[in-house]
Design a protein that fits this description.
It is a single chain. A 4-stranded mixed beta sheet has the order 1-2-4-3, with no helix packed on it. Helix 4 links the parallel strand 3 and strand 4. Helix content is about 40%, strand content about 10%.
């Protein structure tokens, strides 16, 4: 099982209410921020509250996949993403 499939399965088991998108178009929208780096994450998750964030983190731990929290696209997390291609998560405003 590939890394993305393993992640999606873990989310289905541990965080069934969390929306996770791994299609190329959605990942591409999160491949950049205010920096010059362009690296698509493995997936993008959209937890709605703290409980869903905790469930998402449990799922990623179970899948053995690191996580990068996305802020406002200001380039604060880009060096980490550049090295690991971590899935990202973002909260609604």
């Amino acid at each position: 099982m590939g890394e993305v499939a393993r992640l999606l399965e873990a989310v289905r088991v541990h965080a069934p209410g969390v929306t996770v998108e791994a299609d190329a178009g959605r990942r591409g929208a999160y491949a950049y921020d205010a920096s010059n780096y362009r690296v698509a994450p493995l997936a993008v998750a959209f937890p709605r509250d703290g409980d869903e964030v905790a469930a998402l983190l449990r799922a990623c731990r179970a899948a053995g996949v690191p996580v990068t929290a996305r802020g406002a696209g200001t380039s604060i997390t880009t060096p980490q993403r550049r090295r690991t291609r971590c899935p990202q998560w973002t909260l609604p405003a």
